[in-house]
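Now read the record:
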Amino acid sequence: MTRLDPASPAVRHLERTIDFLLQSEELDGEPGLSHQAGTALADLIVLALGARGDAAEIAIGRGLRAARLREALAVIEARFADPALSTETVARAV
């Protein structure tokens, strides 16, 4: 059995994505969104399990990119009025 490294960025993004999906009601009745969420989740699982080569490149381009974008947008939304908000603070948060 493969153990996941909790310090791995892929595992961290996987955990956050699972939490987001469990709390989201936007996927109900939206097959396109559900399919996209499933693909992103599968990509993050592949990365968390240590994919290499072409599989890793594909997963990084789809799943990891989508997870980082979602996290960055959440930080921006939460801290929009904060004068200290910058690209650096967003990058550190994700």
The chain has one domain: 9-93. Residues 53-78 form the longest helix (26 residues). Residues 28 and 87 are 33 Å apart (CA to CA).
